[in-house]
Amino acid sequence: DQQVKQNSPSLSVQEGRISILNCDYTNSMFDYFLWYKKYPAEGPTFLISISSIKDKNEDGRFTVFLNKSAKHLSLHIVPSQPGDSAVYFCAASLMNRDDKIIFGKGTRLHILP
Amino acid sequence: DTAVSQTPKYLVTQMGNDKSIKCEQNLGHDTMYWYKQDSKKFLKIMFSYNNKELIINETVPNRFSPKSPDKAHLNLHINSLELGDSAVYFCASSQQGVLRAFFGQGTRLTVV
Question: Are strands A97-103 and A86-94 parallel, antiparallel or unpaired?
């Protein structure tokens, strides 16, 4: 039972353009969402998060949008850079339960020169 | 300085063997975790420890036994290894729960 779904296993984007990574979730109780970035042979690193009281959170080139009614969030990277090539994991959790987080399967982003 | 370090990075072993993966964090975090990323690429939590006490045990076979000698270390011992145990195992730590965890580089375990 996939509670967090990333339906695109991979995505290719031209350098300088916008990268949009999508994520859907099924549990309406989730109230905190995160994106992690993972390079090969390294562990995931935290990128950006958003709580359910917001619909947008921005940090430099990275913006996460949350649509609670659609149970959908997306990560926008503008402009895309070669170093952004990595696997991006969407994750969801409950803020009042700091014990576990549900991860998606990840989307591999390729930034093309 | 590596914040969360786990050893070994690669581990190839035969079915039936017992092996351990070590994890250490120098961030002063209270909570440590073990995650498993299987062939389907899902990252699933296995265990979490808070100040050396087990908090989560997510339906993991009892062949897997975490050991936390102190809050900076959480080792994973696996008995009687099976083919299905082949995966990448990630250690992680956090101060405010999993919501912002720091991960180690992973240990790729291959059981042959």
Answer: antiparallel
